[in-house]
């Protein structure tokens, strides 16, 4: 029986790379995203399925899991990847933006994990992988919503891991530094404009300044790590917030 893998934010970037790797590994992949055009095209290419859902809303989370269970009967792997950034000083950070960021990047992973949990318990096997960030481990100014959500995601990861162990379910978080994704490309462009620098200068002098390895992480590298953590071989790894940070936190 193919293992069923549900990946959010799967129309591009890290989520797409994970969906591609899981499909190559023989999983039945369910891609979820707001971008229906790209999501459906990639799902068709990978022989998987697509569900368009606004995961900042409870109904969107419920429908995503219900449609996955209706199509496949179960779910073995959940990758909570969907997210975005909004940068502003704390006193100017919009309250509605705070609510949406917490909803998408913390409440949605909780709800999706909760809704997938019974199926994983029945299977006596499950993998929940939360895509955190270096900002799940440290803070940066002007990213209060993103940092708060990602820090909370680590708490969710650890608590769920303690509850899942007896049922063969592991729960982990990958915490990468800057990955070459459309989200990071936009940040580079914004920083270049704000600091009157070249994009290459932003990457080397701002983004990678604290890192030991001076390059961006490729989405496929995160996908390789995800594949290992969601395999049988990683059955003893759970409750971990695993830095993939180019040596950033070694300082």
User: How would you characterize the largest beta sheet?
Assistant: 7 strands, parallel
Q: List the uncertain runs.
A: none
As a percent range, the share of strand residues is: 5-15%
Number of helices: 8
Number of strands: 7
Structural class: alpha/beta
Query: How far is the first residue's CA from the last residue's CA?
Result: 45 Å
The spatial strand order of the largest sheet comes to 3-2-1-4-5-6-7
> What value does the average pLDDT take?
94
General description of the model:
With 251 residues, the protein is α/β, with parallel strands linked by helices. Helix content is 49%, strand content 15%. It is built from eight helices and seven strands; from the N terminus they run βαβαβαβαβαβαααβ. It has a seven-stranded parallel beta sheet, with helices on both faces. α3 packs parallel to α4. The longest helix is centred in the middle third of the chain and has 29 residues, at 95-123. The model has no long low-confidence stretch (mean pLDDT 94).
Provide a compact summary of the structure.
The chain has 251 residues and is an alpha/beta fold. The chain is built from 8 helices and 7 strands, in the order βαβαβαβαβαβαααβ.
């Amino acid at each position: 029986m193919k293992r069923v893998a549900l990946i959010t934010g799967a129309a591009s970037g890290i989520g797409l790379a994970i969906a591609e790797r899981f499909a190559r590994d023989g999983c039945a992949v369910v891609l979820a995203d707001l971008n229906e055009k790209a999501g459906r095209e990639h799902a068709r290419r990978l022989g998987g399925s697509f569900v368009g859902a606004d995961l900042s809303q409870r109904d969107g989370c419920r429908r995503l899991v219900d449609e996955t269970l209706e199509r496949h009967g179960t779910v073995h792997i959940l990758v909570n990847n969907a997210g975005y950034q909004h940068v502003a000083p704390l006193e100017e950070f919009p309250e509605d933006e705070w609510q949406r960021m917490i909803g998408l990047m913390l409440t949605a992973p909780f709800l999706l994990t909760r809704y997938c949990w019974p199926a994983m318990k029945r299977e006596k096997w499950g993998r929940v992988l939360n895509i955190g960030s270096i900002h799940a481990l440290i803070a940066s100014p002007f990213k209060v919503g993103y940092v708060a959500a990602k820090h909370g995601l680590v708490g969710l990861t650890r608590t769920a891991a303690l509850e899942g162990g007896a049922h063969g379910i592991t729960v982990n978080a990958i915490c990468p530094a800057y990955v070459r994704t459309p989200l990071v490309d936009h940040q580079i462009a914004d920083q270049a404009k704000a600091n009157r620098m070249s994009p290459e200068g932003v990457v080397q002098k701002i983004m990678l300044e604290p890192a030991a390895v001076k390059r961006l992480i490729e989405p496929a590298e995160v996908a390789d790590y995800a594949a290992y953590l969601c395999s049988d071989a990683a059955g003893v790894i759970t409750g971990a917030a695993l830095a993939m940070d180019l040596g950033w936190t070694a300082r």
